[in-house]
Write a structure and sequence with these properties.
Its main location: membrane. The protein is of the alpha/beta class and about 475 residues long. The chain has 15 helices and 18 strands.
Length: about 475
């Protein structure tokens, strides 16, 4: 089954977000879209699916399996959902039903789309989850899953209906290298069996592994396209060359702890910490001291307790044993968390400007302070008058970072803070984070699945244990 997009154009309030994008996705083929955050990559997939926000103006033609429709007629493609075309969205917790356990969510596709009976549907769903190392998570609700586990459940759910065309928006976001490779292998297998894949990713390694055609987008337009081996090894466009060169392995190594307001002072300390989740011990006997201006990396497989460690250090949940001490005489609001999924931390019903104004009022700082941070993070001011669901994941992630930093924390737990950013924006954002936190003497605990990134930008590293599943 072939998917064709012709002359796609998407605009908002007079601003063109996607201009003249055309592509053909054939059986046994992969097309991967690379590009900076906000370049329109996700909008292309949403247009193909028929889920573009109603306030955006869409034009062009979409054809899947011989069914041709106007790109603006989004309802025309609803009957293909799950049957001819399936989408794995960028935000797993938004796509998963919070009232359903993992196994039931995956079984639903096998039963109501593929037509299997209740028993066979559950057995196949269980096998799907086991293939993604989620056998122990099939009875859990989405809120009981780590970010990487939720991503894998969403992947299994999207694939359950057996649609030959898959649209995957950042399908390996938040996964460690082992699980990333496992998901890539499953995507390649589906293509090798006659399916077709449109993949949106900022991970150059994923793009290389998937092969096929590469499309590079910049400011809503295609600036380069061609075979993966050619585009990623010998790119012709200056932007593509910058994109490939911005991979973490090319970053400079972190220097020793930079200037802090009180050099060497401990801002937070954990002693003999042990943490459990869902009845299972994740780690124990962990000693940790975070000093002003210091960056410490936390790595380990999905589900090993990285996020849970942050919640314990911030007092959001108690440890199974051990003790946490925070600097005395400091307001609790100066111990901050940068959440892995920023979409879950913003109200969907108010503009970003309103959300930021509420934050500056709460912390009694000038709105100019947050505007200065947004400028350093290259966030366009025009985005502030949109709701969270009207901006890209990467744009929202940077707004979330500015909102946290405006509180002037002395300790920041940053949970995968650049997981939605392209390599160039990721490097720029990390540079800003390091500059601001070290200028202010803020100790930072950085969670990342990217060991290379951790080695490049942190002075010390902690590796937590094996996968929860």
């Amino acid at each position: 089954m072939t998917l064709t997009i012709e002359n796609l154009r998407i605009a908002a309030a007079g601003a063109v977000l996607v201009r003249d994008v055309s592509l053909t996705l054939e059986p046994y083929r992969t097309v991967t879209i690379l590009g900076e955050t906000g370049s329109g990559k996700t909008l292309v997939a949403e247009a193909a699916m028929g889920t573009v926000a109603p306030e955006l103006a869409v034009s062009g033609r979409i054809a899947d399996g011989g069914e041709i429709s106007d790109a603006a007629d989004q309802g025309a493609r609803r009957g293909a959902w799950g049957r001819r075309i399936a989408m794995l969205p960028q935000e797993p917790w938004v796509s998963l039903d919070p009232t359903m356990r993992s196994l039931a969510q995956v079984a639903e596709g096998h039963r109501f789309v593929r037509g299997l009976g209740p028993g066979p549907a559950r057995r196949q769903a269980r096998a799907d989850l086991a293939s993604l190392n989620l056998a122990a998570g099939d009875d859990r609700y989405p809120h009981q899953l780590s970010g990487g586990m939720a991503q894998r459940v969403a992947f299994a759910s999207a694939r359950a209906g057996g649609a030959p065309i898959t649209l995957a928006d950042e399908p390996t976001k938040g996964l460690d290298a082992t699980m990333r490779d496992a998901v890539v292998a499953l995507l390649r297998k589906a293509v090798e069996e006659g399916g077709s894949l449109l993949c949106i990713t900022h991970d150059i390694a994923v793009a290389k592994a998937l092969g096929g055609e590469i499309i590079v987008m910049l400011k809503g337009e295609i600036v380069e396209r061609g075979d993966a081996d050619t585009v990623l090894v010998a790119p012709s466009h200056p932007y593509t060359r910058r994109l490939v060169a911005a991979a973490p392995e090319n970053w400079p190594t972190a220097t020793a702890t930079a200037t802090a307001s009180v050099p060497g002072d401990v801002v937070l300390e954990g002693t003999e910490l042990a943490v459990s989740r869902n009845g299972r011990r994740l780690f124990s006997d962990l000693d940790l001291a975070v000093r002003a201006g210091e960056w410490i990396g936390v790595t380990g497989p999905s589900g090993c307790g990285k996020t849970t460690l942050g919640n314990v250090l911030l007092g959001l949940m108690p440890p199974a044993s051990g003790r946490v001490r925070r600097r005395a005489g400091v307001a609790s609001t100066r111990f901050q968390k940068l959440y892995q999924d920023p979409v879950a931390t913003f109200s969907r019903h108010v503009s970003l400007r309103t959300a930021l104004a509420e934050t500056t009022a709460r912390h009694r700082v000038s709105f100019d302070d947050v505007m200065t941070l947004l400028e350093r993070l290259r966030v366009p001011v025009a985005l502030l008058d949109r709701r969270p669901d009207q901006v890209s994941g990467g744009e929202l992630q940077r707004v979330s970072l500015a909102r946290v930093l405006v509180a002037k924390p002395i300790f920041l737990f940053a949970d995968e803070p650049t997981s939605r950013l392209d390599p160039i924006t990721q490097q720029e954002t990390m540079d800003v984070m390091r500059e601001v936190t070290r200028e202010r003497g803020c100790g930072t605990l950085l969670v990342t699945h990217d060991r290379t990134m951790a080695e490049r930008i942190t002075e010390r590293r902690i590796t937590l244990g094996s996968d929860l599943a």
